[in-house]
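Quick review question:
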């Protein structure tokens, strides 16, 4: 007993590194990612964020305390008022209008990932749901930090994806990532080895679905 978040990443190190260091991420960092691949990713990520908002609503439903309910409410509010607005604005800069977003067909990788998270949350408790969300919430912050540590990463106007990296390295996002880590560390400290094994399966599944999401972008898969 006495687990923490890093025990989850240690338990599936290979999948975790494959997600953080995916070819999509490397190409984005080097500024050589195909623009249509990025556009496809941005469109599907809009759908991802819509379902992600529903997962926060599910976290509210699964809350046992007022503090948990407030936490879920703040998360839902941030994603609706901040993340989705930012994303819609960013899509516009890439030539994707709001009408396009409203009419998007959902790719299989988006369907699989988002519904997996929602189903895991429905079946389990708040900790199961947070562990299913952790690759998303914590992974992107780690990706920005990993990219900044690579000599191949190009920053500034020479990289058309610089704003994407800037968003996830920013203080607001990094603070949210640390808060989520601390929440998970506190909860994981209490779980039995049997429960930890089940949580590892959820974390690994969600990490592999993130890998598929990157690959869907690269392949422009529907
Ligand atoms: C496939 C996919 N996975 C993770 C994220 C990252 N992300 C989505 S919402 C959120 C925090 C909300 O407050 C973060 C970090 C993404 N955009 N798309």
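Suggested answer, residue by residue:
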């Amino acid at each position: 007993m006495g687990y923490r978040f890093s025990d989850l990443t240690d338990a599936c190190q290979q999948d975790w590194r494959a997600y953080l260091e995916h070819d999509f991420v490397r190409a984005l960092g080097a500024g050589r990612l195909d623009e249509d691949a990025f556009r496809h990713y941005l469109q599907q990520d809009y759908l991802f964020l819509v379902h992600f908002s529903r997962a926060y609503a599910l976290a509210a439903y699964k809350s046992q305390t007022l503090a948990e309910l407030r936490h879920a409410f703040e998360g839902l509010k941030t994603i609706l008022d901040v993340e989705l607005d930012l994303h819609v604005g960013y899509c516009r800069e890439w030539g994707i209008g709001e009408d396009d977003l409203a009419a998007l067909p959902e790719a299989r990788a988006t369907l699989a990932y988002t519904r997996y998270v929602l189903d895991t949350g429905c079946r389990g408790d708040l900790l199961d749901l947070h562990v299913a969300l952790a690759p998303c919430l914590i992974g992107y912050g780690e990706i920005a930090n990993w990219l900044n540590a690579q000599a191949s990463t190009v920053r500034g106007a020479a990289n058309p994806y610089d704003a994407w990296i800037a968003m996830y390295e920013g203080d607001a996002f990094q603070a949210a990532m640390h808060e989520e880590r601390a929440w998970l560390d506190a909860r994981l400290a209490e779980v039995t080895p049997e429960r930890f094994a089940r949580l590892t399966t959820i974390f690994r599944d969600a990490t592999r679905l993130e890998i598929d999401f990157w690959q869907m972008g690269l392949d422009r898969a529907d």
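Why it works: Residues 45, 48-49, 52, 78-79, 83, 136-137, 140, 176, 210, 213 surround VIB (CB under 6 Å). The radius of gyration is 17 Å.
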